[in-house]
Amino acid sequence: MSRKPAKGEYIETDTGNKVSRRSQIIGTTNIILGGKTVIQAEVIIRGDLLRTYPSSNPNEKQGTPVAVAIGRYCFFSRGCELRPPGKLYKGSFSHYPLKIADHVFVGPGSIIEAALIGSHVNIGSNVVVGKFAIIKDFVKILDGTVVPANMVIPSFSIVAGRPAQIVGEIAEGEIEGFDLREAYRAVGNS
Amino acid sequence: MAEFKPYTYFQCPCSDNSVSVREVGGANPAGQEETDEDERTFDPRAPRANYSLYPLEHLLYCEDCHQIRCPRCVLDEIVCWYCPNCLFEVPSSSVKSEGNRCTRSCFQCPICTAPLSVSSTEPPPEGLGAEYATVSGTYVLNCSYCLWSSKEIGIELDKPNSVYAQLAKIKNGGEPLLLPKERRKALEERREAGEDGSHIPGSKEEQELDAESHFYNLKSFYQEQLSDSSPAGALGLTGDYGYGSPGALSRIMGLYTSGALGDRKSKNKSGTMREAHDALEGLQITPLSASDAIARLCTSGWEGTASLSQRREQPHNPRFVSDLRPVANLLRTKRSKRCKTCRHILSKPESKVQKTHFRIRLVALNYIPNIAIRALQAPSAPSGLLAPLKPTQFLLTFSNPLFDSVRVNIATPAHTPGRFGSKVTILCPQFEVGANTDVWDEALGESGGKAGSEREKRRTKAEASEGQGQAEAGKIWERGRNWVSVVVEVVPASLRLDGPEFLKSEEQRRDAGPLREDEDVLEIPVFVRLEWEADVAGEEGGGLATGNKEKEVREKRELAYWCVLGVGRIAQD
Question: Is residue A34 included in any domain, yes or no?
């Protein structure tokens, strides 16, 4: 890297998010960051892929539409991509929101098109999470896994393979290891 | 090659390594001398060691036995069954009756195991209004990963829901399948017809049965036979389920024991039984010539043949891809864990499927100090391998999770076991690790809480004389509130086997074979002995008793175990 960024590598927001200046975040108004989330360089977040199909629930408040909702203490490593999933439903194509809870780690080069990712989820590097996948809490996805579309991964699973299969269980003592507060603190702005 | 990550494995004391073993693949069954319990050192390379070493995260701790518990010395108890796909709880009664598979609509692709989704075969409607919505139409199961569709095996569904029930009625190809209820009806009809004696063997009944109806037919046939052969039942029980009755049981037992009890009776009755002789009675003639299968193999080829892993998933052992059926998802369980010796619960998850909370969770992580390994100097070689015969220093950091300070004694054999014994020296084998404090104390102390930092300062001052940052014998390297680092010096062994004879160890002289897998990994067995004084009153009385200083009873505790430090790979020169 010849050119050194003039300021710090990260833009720090009021809620403590550290967003790399070299990340590509499209449609920022449709993205919610819960705070203390790290977004590294070359991460792509597609907030522009909004839901076009009218919501079935008319009571839902008509505020600003949300394409990507991210909780607290999430960590998006270099070069990963978050893309709201889309499908053809009753003849029209629409995207649907991508929701990510707290303490979710996404490894470098992974592509996430899930519908829902629970909290305390560790996704390795070069993983593809297919459209409308649902990942529950305390799940570890090993490097290079391809999670097929519409797959549901229950809590306390270790997942690997192409297509992904549940290969193991998270032991009771491994629960603390999913906490990403340390990883957040370790990210310096230099 | 993947980068070597230092690891620490703990040995669960439940395993007994005193039985002498011989190395798998080793040429000579080296008779290992039984040594005294105290002198015996733990060999991490022993084939048995694999089954007793665990990372600390996998271990539990029994508070009543005061001992580490590994997955081998706990008992699992099923809290609930649930489908991993729809996450619905399945009551254990229906697991017993319906089997351990999801009976809703959760299916796996028979080709690639990805989840199947139901989709309509009708073209999508033109508009969005209710008048366009189609009510009719068939549905198929689709795999979004390998694009398999249930149309390939000729299965189409009428409804998008309750797929399990629908699939139970359809054969591959779309023909209807008899349900157990219908089977019974057909059987009864046949029996009525059979009363006339007009039974024609070899007619339409010579059909091919699927596994389920085969079993059902056989079962009902033999039940019938049993009830016929013992009309009043051996002990006066009538009932067509003759073989569940105690009379039948004693008769069956009589067959095996040939005792005086049931012997005569069984002799009387054995003659009246006959064997099944048609399909409705469960007779299936195995096709002796495999010409059909060979012809199919020739036409369908390699692509049409089911792989071993695909066949393993299927209950009926199909040979061709076209015989595969969608696989209903296997249920998964939530389990609580009990100590095998004292039966106390060590871990108990919430019984609701979606909840991830634990009601009880006694993990070893909260009871025994974790050991982290770090190289003191950055490795000289870019590969990160350890240079042989060059003293290398490592830092072992013991962090104490207990709220009492712990005295730690660590010991290692001077040479690591195995053919290539590396020299190991722990510079400070005896030290005390400070007590852990509450998360709150920590948070307050860090944010400028005077008392905490003052105490910390005083302590560090008192221990400043212990030589911080110097690799000196008998002194610790560094210490924090609840952690201590000590230095271990290692002289990695040379992996050469062609060295001079006098340099060789006894094992090398005995076995001069080439380097085996992972023999270049430097693993150090370490014996850890902990001593601390636990607050008994605080443990039992909860919050109330802790305030009572006079009555505080301190109990001396001791815990000792082996662990293995994986330090690095030795470079091969």
Answer: yes
